[in-house]
Amino acid sequence: MSMGGSRCRSGGRRCLPAVLHVFTPWQQRWGATDGEVVGPLPGDDLVAEPAVQTTRAISIAAPAAAVWPWIVQLGADRGGFYSYDWLENLFGLGIHSADRIVEDWQTRRVGDLVHADARGRGGWYVMDVRPDDVLVLKMGDVKLGRPVERHEGIGWEFLWTFAVREEANGTTRLVVRERVGFANNWVKLILAPLGPVSFVMTRKMLAGVKSRAESA
Question: I want to staple 162 with a disulfide (CB 3.0 to 4.6 A). Which of 18, 106, 135, 148 is the partner?
Answer without folding.
Answer: 135
